Amino acid sequence: MRRFASVLLLLCLLLSLAACAAPDEAPDEGTDPAGGQEADPPPEEEPVPEPEPYDIYDPTVMPAGGSRDGVAYAAWDGIVEHLFFHPVVAYPEQAFDGDSEAEGIDDYMVTVNEYNKILQNVYDKGYVLVDIGDVWSETAGEDGQPRMVRNTLYLPEGKKPLIFSFDDTNYYPYMLGNGFTYKLILGEDGKIWSWGLDPEGKEVVSRDLDAITILDKFVEEHPDFSPFGAKACLSLTGYEGILGYRTSTDTREWNDAKEAERQKEREAVAPIVEELKRTGWTFGSHTWGHIRLSGKTRSMEEIQSDTQRWFDEVGSLIGETTILFYPHGERPDGNDWKETGPIFQYFQEQGFRVFCSVGIESFSYIKKDICAVICDRLHPDGTTLRHSRNRYLQFYDAKEIMEVDVRPQREIDWE
Ligand SMILES: [Zn+2]
Fold first, then answer.
1. What is the mean pLDDT of residues 331-356?
2. Is it the case that residue 6 has pLDDT exceeding 50?
3. Quick count: other Cβ atoms within 10 Å of Cβ 14?
4. What CATH number does residue 184 fall under?
5. Distance from Cα 292 to the centre of ligand 1, integer Å
C-alpha cells in the first residue's frame, strides 16, 4: 500500500510540474492540432499509471548475509523440477462440446480450476519458481572450450526449485471461440490482462481466465512463491503471430495492406512483451512452424529457413533467447542425448543452449561434446491427470485436481 501511495504522490508531483511548465494560453482539449499554432501541447490524457516496481533477483548469488527480507537462504544442488502447460481452458463447456478438437484439448490442457489448484498445491508443497535461464550457465570447460554447467541455486531454506514453461502461447485461431482467451492486453492499471469472448459472445477482460494472468495474480498474492521474481518461460511459435497478435507473414498472397496490418500488430504487442519481461516472464523458441526436428519429415534446409523466419518474426520482438522447446517433444536428429547430430549442431550454432523435450521426469543432461544442456519436462494435462497420478503426487493429487464432470467421459486409471 505504501508503495502505491508513493507512486501516486510522484504522479501528482509530475502532473503539477507539467501544469506549471505549460503556457497559460494552453488550448482546450478540443483545439484542432492542425490549426497552425506553434508548440501546441498534446491534449490532456488520462495519466498512465506508473508501473509498480518489480524486483528480479539472481538465484545463483547468495543474498548478502545469507538472508533477504528476514528469510534465510541455503544452497541447492538437487534436481530442478520442470512443469509445462499449454494454454488453460477458460470455458470447459465450449472446449469439451464434443467437436473435433475436444479430445485433443482434453489430452493436452488443464482447465482454469485445475490450474488454480495445481498452483496452490505446488506452492503448499514448498516449490518456488526459478527461471530456466538461471539454472545453467555457459563457462569454459577443461579443454578451454565453452561448456554448460549447472549452477548452485540459493533458495529460501526448505524450498525446492521449480521451472514453469508455457507452450504455444500464441492464441492460435483454432482456440478462439473454443474455450480459450483470445489475446493478452495491457489493462488501464498497466498490468497484463486477457481479452476474449465468452460462450455467449460477450467481451471479457479478465485476470482470472488465462494461465499467464492467473500466475501473475498468484505471485502478487503469494510473493514467496517467486522469491526471485521468476514467472514462466513462454514457448512461442511464429506462424500465427504471438500472444494473440498476428505478427506473422504469409508467403502465399502477401501485399502492402497485409504488411501494414502486420506492422500495426507488431507495434501493439511490443509493450506487452516489455511488461511481461519486466515482471519475470522470459521467452523461448518453439520453432516458427511448430515443425518436427527429427530430420525424418523435414530437411535441414527447411529447418534452417524455419529458424530464420522465427528470428525475423518472433526473435525480433522478444529479443535473444538460448532456450529451444521441441515441437511435439521430438528430439533433433531423432536422438539428442547419445548423439549430437547436424540438426542439433545447427540450433546450437544459432545460439540455443538449453534444449527442452517432454518426458516422465525432470531429467537433464549436460552434453560433453558441445556447449548445450538437454532436459525433459513433465506435463500436467488431461493425459497425466487420467493416467499418471502417482508420478505427479509430489506436485498434486490428480484425484483432487481433475474436473472429472466437465471433461469428456473417458478412461481414468487411478489406482
Ligand atoms: Zn507445441
1. 96
2. no
3. 12
4. 3.20.20.370
5. 10
Ligand 1 centre to CA of 13 (Å) is: 48
Under DSSP, the state recorded for 381 is S
- Residue with the bigger pLDDT between 111 and 415: it is 111
- Mean pLDDT, residues 337-366: 96
Distance 52 CA to ligand 1 centre (A): 33
Gap from CA of 45 to ligand 1 centroid (Å): 41
Whether residue 33 lies inside any domain: the answer is: no
Contact partners, residue 272, CB within 8 Å, separation at least 6: 184, 185, 186, 192, 243, 245
Distance separating alpha carbons of residues 249 and 86, to the nearest angstrom = 24
Cα 86 to averaged position of ligand 1 atoms, centre (Å):
8
- Closest listed residue to residue 275, CA positions, set 39, 100, 52: 52
Chain-centre distance for alpha carbon 116: 17
pLDDT band at 50 (very low <50, low <70, confident <90, very high): confident
Number of independent structural domains in the chain = 1
Q: Is residue 407 part of a domain?
A: no
Put simply, whether the predicted model's pTM sits higher than 0.85 gets the answer yes
In a domain, residue 275? The reply is yes
Whether 30 is covered by a domain: the verdict is no
What separation in Å is there between the alpha carbon of 170 and the centre of ligand 1?
10
Q: Cα of 235 to ligand 1 centre, how many Å?
A: 8
